[in-house]
Write a structure and sequence with these properties.
With about 325 residues, chain A is an alpha+beta fold. Helix content of chain A is about 60%, strand content about 10%. Chain A folds into 2 domains: about 200 residues, Multidrug efflux transporter AcrB transmembrane fold; about 80 residues, Alpha-Beta Plaits (2-Layer Sandwich), CATH 3.30.70. Chain B is of the alpha+beta class. Chain B folds into 3 domains: about 210 residues, Multidrug efflux transporter AcrB transmembrane fold, CATH 1.20.1640.10; about 90 residues; about 160 residues, Gyrase A, domain 2 (2-Layer Sandwich). The chains are: A alpha+beta (about 325), B alpha+beta (about 525).
Chain lengths: ~325, ~525
């Protein structure tokens, strides 16, 4: 059987040549993301901002203007309507009501009364001001702790330079994800935070694979110039990097297209994260090592499996 | 020679059989599961509320109200104790002082006796954690922090019990009611079609008391801003009745409680003269008290008060001695039944506030399951085709491992009775994409080793050996993310973390053990000259 070769064998692309260009490009994108976040902010969902969300299904195609008129006149503040997947389905967002938790509860009742009995309530969610604040805190804590824990793990398994490089790469991915959410005005909610953490995990997974090869090659080719060695390592792992990205993207695309409206935001974030993560592990994480004064001697601890000769008999 | 230990083959076989046996019940309907013999596993995956439909409510016990009630109780007991002393202990300004309770003694020499009263208070309330401060004649009694925590804790415990009773009365299946943190309660009720009713039932304190009305003063003259209430009374609004300006009608109610809702033993929503009413029955103590008060006050009105609102204020026509009575108001049938339910279940020790609600209708849940199923199956098929195209026979071995991987995820989820949520399905689909990563790593490495001139067997051996550390390093970092997600995430996100973590572990197992076993067995049988990679 002839196999389809998705990535040519034995590539010798000089990735490191593009490192300055990539650095400028990424820096620009990061700054732009931070700028967007500062200027435009994020479209926080009710998880963080508090407020009310109703998903309804009307008997026939929903009459948006009629719905808008009946809900807008209730004095509940800003009410957003959005068609959700099908013409019969409408997502209603009502801003957080002034006053405590009770006020939100009352607003839900008022809105439901106005919508009447013939609509089917597919989803009712409300988050009071207290919980919203806590969820933000928990989300930020989780992301920061994850970054810290990964830094420590990589530092422990490699050298500190690798840890710093990996964390800068993840930070880059996280920033760009926040940037695209701000740019497109996509709803940023709890599942986005979950997506960001998973992106961090995926991105570091990618980075570790290349770093592992760098470490191996540092032991094997003691005299090779660093840039050449890094290029060699990226090229050797290139087909794996791309193949895994492709299978992951296949899975995510089916989820995005067919997994239902509720998961769409999550899968979009993940798709973006996989693309950015793959780019950053090749063009950011590895080139960063050039600037961080790697000491080769420090890497020879532990197993020295420098046998390039075919291995002999091995018990399992 | 590459070699795969016998015991490893046995382990793989056991895990496969066990995994399939544990996962299979998920293919059956609920009815079908009952037909599985007892010695086989029959647990199905627990679906989250977002998939089966239901309500998730996060409630908070009103701490301030618990503590202020506690202060009121202490003031009453102190008043009793100080008055009962013989001779009476003189005191002034007995009342709440900030977070504490205090009074001023009239005579310094009463201090020892006053201390005894306070000590009695401690032993009476099982709260040996009072702080007593004496400054000249002024005495302050505070609950210590431990004391407050105990009070709060028992209030939360009691609230959980009451909430459980109320929800059980609704007849829903398997509600989960658990304590969260110091003062919160998480309620999860699957398959409910009227979340508003649930919220109304939980959000009502349902503290019911019977009071006499003050007849010597009129409510109009005593209630409202700037007007003076006669001592020993308070003004309460009517629940239903409104005056011409659409303000609730006020009643001037005597503070003393005739009978308390705690003395109710039964309540039912019924009809009387074509009107929905709630009929109730008192226990012996309540019946006796109600009997004597009604005997002494024939012709007088009294108020039935629920959560500081007057439901109705009928006139006592004759003494009610049997302990049975009827509450009529402007009830609908549903309202009468709900009130009866609340009275049966008992009053909450303090108001509950709903902090967060997430309700998913059964229809959306079913749609989510269908969409998730379709996306998963499609993802599996596409990845299987892709792997076969990229790695040929080796790819197909990885595909077998992928299929097994999904079976194992289902098995572990059923076994742990972990909850599968919609983000959890996303986690599974993501794992399908990432599960082949370990195999891709290994196959690429084998390819590379073979290109460097190794024999097939040697290349396979080196490929596995070298890829292993990479696989472990890469997966542990993702596992870190999953663990933190579980720790800090709420409900559905936790579900995602669970499936992601399980998927990572099972994919490592299938890549390192299962595909490897297949590859080694194949090498032994065929002894190929070149690898079809």
């Amino acid at each position: 059987m002839r196999l389809i070769s998705f990535v040519p064998v034995g590539t010798k692309i000089n990735f490191l040549k593009f490192r300055k260009m990539a650095a400028v490009f990424s820096l620009f994108l990061c700054v732009a993301s931070v700028g967007l976040f500062a200027a435009k902010g994020l479209n926080f969902g009710i998880d963080f901002r508090g407020g009310i969300l109703l998903e309804i299904r009307t008997p026939g195609a929903a009459d948006m203007s009629k719905l808008r008129a009946s809900l807008g006149g209730l004095g509940l503040g800003e009410v957003q309507l959005q068609e959700f997947g099908q013409p019969t389905d409408v997502l209603i967002r009502i801003e957080r009501q002034a006053g405590g938790e009770k006020a939100q509860l009352v607003a839900v009742e008022i809105a439901k009364k106005a919508l009447g009995d013939e609509v089917n309530y597919r989803r009712t969610e409300f988050v009071g001001p207290k919980v919203g604040g806590e969820l933000i805190e928990a989300g930020v804590t989780a992301v920061l702790l994850a970054l810290g824990a990964m830094l420590v793990y990589i530092w422990f398994r490699f050298e500190w330079q690798f840890g710093v490089g990996a964390v800068i790469a993840i930070l880059h991915d996280v920033l760009l994800t926040i940037g695209i959410f701000s740019l497109l005005g996509l709803e940023f909610n709890l599942s986005t935070v979950a997506a960001i953490l998973t992106i961090a995990g995926y991105s570091i997974n990618d980075t570790v694979v290349v770093y592992d090869r760098v470490r191996e090659n540092l032991r094997k080719f003691k005299q090779m110039p660093l840039t050449e060695l890094l290029n060699l390592s990226i090229n050797a792992t290139l087909s794996r990097t791309l193949l895994t990205s492709v299978t992951t993207l296949i899975a995510l695309l089916t989820l995005y297209l067919f997994g239902g409206e509720v998961l769409r935001g999550f899968s979009f974030a993940m798709i973006w994260g996989v693309l950015v993560g793959t780019y950053s592990s090749i063009f950011i994480a590895v080139p960063l090592l050039v600037y961080m004064n790697l000491r080769r001697s420090g890497l020879i601890v532990g197993d020295t499996d420098d046998d390039d000769a075919p291995a002999g008999k091995t018990a399992n | 020679m590459v070699y795969f230990a016998k015991w490893k083959i046995i382990i793989v076989a056991i895990v496969c059989v066990f995994g399939i046996a544990t996962a299979v019940p998920n293919l059956f309907s609920e009815k079908g599961v009952e037909g599985i013999p007892g010695w086989l596993p029959s647990q199905q995956i627990n679906l989250g509320l977002d998939l089966q439909g239901g309500s998730h409510l996060l409630l908070e016990v009103d701490v301030a109200s618990v503590l202020s009630q506690r202060r009121e109780g202490m003031i009453d007991s102190l008043r009793d104790g100080l008055r009962r002393g013989s001779p009476r202990i003189g005191y002034r300004r007995l009342g709440a002082r900030g977070e504490c309770v205090g009074f001023d003694l009239v005579k310094q020499e009463d201090l020892t006796r006053a201390r005894r009263v306070i000590r009695n208070l401690e032993s009476n309330t099982f709260d040996p954690t009072l702080d007593v401060n004496v400054d000249g004649l002024s005495v302050t009694v505070c609950s210590t922090e431990t004391g407050q925590r105990t009070i709060l804790s028992s209030a939360v415990q009691q609230s959980i019990e009451i909430v459980r009773r109320r929800i059980d009365e609704l007849g829903t299946r398997e509600p989960t009611i658990q304590r969260q943190g110091a003062d919160r309660i998480l309620v999860q009720v699957p398959g409910l079609d009227d979340p508003e009713r649930l919220k109304a039932l939980i959000g009502t304190t349902a503290k019911m008391t019977f009071h006499l009305l003050d007849q010597s003063n009129s409510a109009a003259a005593s209630c409202g801003a700037g007007r003076r209430r006669p001592p020993g009374t308070f003004c309460l609004p009517s629940q239903e009745d409104r005056d011409v300006n659409n303000n609730p009608i006020m009643y001037l109610v005597k503070r003393r409680v005739m009978v308390d809702g705690e003395n109710l033993v039964d309540a039912q929503g019924t009809f009387q003269d074509g009107q929905a009413v709630v009929s109730f029955r008192f226990d012996t103590v309540g019946a006796r008290r109600f009997g004597s008060v009604t005997r002494e006050n024939v012709g007088q009105p009294f108020a039935i008060v629920l959560d500081k609102k007057v439901i109705s204020a009928p006139v006592i026509r004759e003494p009610i001695l049997g302990g049975n009575g009827v509450i009529s108001g402007n009830f609908t049938i549903q309202a009468a039944q709900d009130l009866a339910l609340l009275l049966r279940a008992g009053a909450l020790p303090a108001p509950l506030t709903v902090l967060e609600e997430r309700t998913v209708g059964a229809e959306l849940g079913a749609d989510s399951i269908a969409a998730g199923k379709f996306a998963s199956i499609l993802a599996v098929v596409l990845v299987i085709v892709f792997m076969a195209a990229a790695y040929g026979m080796f790819g197909m071995m990885a595909d077998v491992a992928l299929a097994l991987n999904i079976v194992l995820i289902a098995a572990v989820l059923s076994m742990l009775q972990a909850t599968l949520t919609l983000p959890g399905i996303a986690g599974i689909v993501l794992t399908i994409g990432m599960a082949v990563d370990a195999n891709v790593l290994i196959f690429e490495r084998i390819r590379e080793e073979a290109r460097n001139g190794r024999t097939p067997i040697s290349a396979v051996d080196a490929g596995y050996k070298r890829a292993l550390t990479t696989i472990i390093d890469a997966n542990i970092t993702t596992l870190i993310a999953a663990v933190l997600l579980f720790q800090f995430g709420s409900g559905p996100i936790k579900g995602f973390a669970v499936t992601l973590a399980i998927g990572l572990l099972t994919s490592m197992f299938t890549a390192i053990m299962v595909t490897r076993m297949m590859v080694v067995i194949w090498l032994h049988r065929r002894r190929p000259k070149t690898l079809p990679l």
